[in-house]
Amino acid sequence: MGLYVLRRLLAAIPTLFVIVTIAFFLIRVVPGGPFDLERPLDPKVLENLKRVYGLDKPLFEQYLTYLWSLARGDLGPSFVIRDFSVAEVFARGLPVSIRLGLLALLVAVIVGGTLGVIAAFRQNRPADYAVVGLATLGITVPTFVTAPIFQIVFGLMLAWLPVGGWNDGAIRNTILPVLTLSLPQIAVIARMTRASMIETLRANHIRTLRAQGLSTATIVRHALRSAALPVVSYLGPAAAQLLTGSLVIESIFGLPGVGRYFVEGALNRDYTLVMGTVVMIAVFVLIFNLIVDIAYAVLDPRVRHG
Amino acid sequence: MSGMQWRVKLAGATLAGSLLFSAAALAQATYHRGNPGDPESLDPHKTSTVVESDILLDLYEGLVTYDAKANIVPGVAESWSTSPDGLTYTFKLRANAKWSNGEAVKADDFVFSFRRLLDPATGAKYANILYTLKNAEKVNKGQAKLEELGAKAVDERTLELTLENAAPYFVAQLAHQTGLPVHPASVGKHGKDFVKAENKVSNGAFMLKSNTPNDKIVVVKNPHYRDAASVKLDQVIFYPIEDRSAGLRRFQAGEVHTYNDVPTDQIKFIRETLKDQFKVAPYLGTYYFAVNTKKAPFSDARVRMALSMVIDREFLAEQIWGGTMVPAYSFVPPGIGNYAEPAFANYKDMSPIEREDKAKALLKEAGYGPGGKKLEIEIRYNTSENHKNTSIAMADMWKPLNVEVKLVNADIKTHYALLRDKGDYDVARAGWIADYSDPQNFLFLAEGNNQGLNYASWINPEYDGLMKDAAREQDLKKRAEILKKAEAIFMREQPYLSLLYYGSKNLVSPKIQGWEPNVLDRHLSRFLSLK
Amino acid sequence: MADAVAIAGRGYWASAWLRLKGNRAAVASLVALILLALACLAGPFFTGHAYDRVYQDYVREPASLTVHPTADRIRPALERVASRMRMSLKEAEIGPVSVRAVFASPRAIDERNLAFIERSDLFGPAKVTERRAEGREVAVEVPIERNRFLFGTDANGRDLLTRILHAGRISLAIGLLASGVALIIGVTYGAAAGYAGGRVDMVMMRIVDIIYSLPFIFFVILLVVFFGRNFLLMFLAVGAVEWLDMARIVRGQTLSLKRQEFVQAAEALGVGAGGILKRHIIPNLIGPVVVYVTLLVPKVILLESFLSFLGLGVQEPMTSLGVLISDGAKAIQGGTYLLIFPAAVLIVMLFALNFIGDGLRDAFDPKDR
Question: Could you give the 3-state DSSP secondary structure of residue B44?
Answer without folding.
Answer: helix
